[in-house]
Amino acid sequence: NDGTIVWLRQASKLIYFENPDKTERHAELTGEGLFEVAKDASRPFIINCGAMKVRVLGTSFNLRINKETIELKVLTGKVKLSSTDDEEGIVVEPNSKVIYSGKGDIEKITMDENDVQTITASTEYNMQFQNTTMDQIIYRIEKKFNVNIKVDNAKIKKCKITADFTDR
Question: Do residues 34 and 125 touch, judged by C-beta distance below 8 A?
Fold first, then answer.
């Protein structure tokens, strides 16, 4: 209910909870998910994935966990990846991919446009519109945020606009 959106891939599971004092947001992920974390500097969002921990304040990223590796792909913002053995960890910048092996090896790679398209496929993450009717834009916003938008003047629905509402 903090405004964070998560798209889980098939056979994935997410458990979400907050500290009793509401100072941190926590999640446990099994599988893969695309996260669009609501910005809240006073309440970090922490995802536990076995021995590793992902810590963010507000950003978008994809996280995939399997038995051998953890793969983190950051779209926007910065994400800290650390472990119980290495609390300092590393900070992953936008358009970067990090692969952590169970042996402790970390490989950092720059993502390309194909990576971005692959991880955002079948989600409502991309909210970029080119000469699109307001009717279609309203539908996409309603679907993404699970809201209903009422338009008093029906003529507005036919107006076309170009805009990018993607979280950047």
Answer: yes
Q: What is the token pair recorded at 149?
A: 């938008």
Tokens of 133: 């009717």
Q: Are 136 and 142 in contact (CB under 8 A)?
A: no
Q: 145 near 122, Cβ under 8 Å?
A: no
Q: For residue range 3-55, what is the model confidence (pLDDT) as tens digits?
A: 899 999 999 999 998 888 888 899 999 999 999 998 888 889 999 987 889 99
**118 exposed, middle or buried (CB, 10 Å; 0-12, 13-18, 19+)?**
exposed
Sequence letter at residue 122: S
How many whole angstroms separate alpha carbon 107 and alpha carbon 117? 21
Which residues make beta-bridge pairs with 63?
Answer: 33, 72
Question: Does the pTM of the predicted model rise above 0.90?
Answer: no
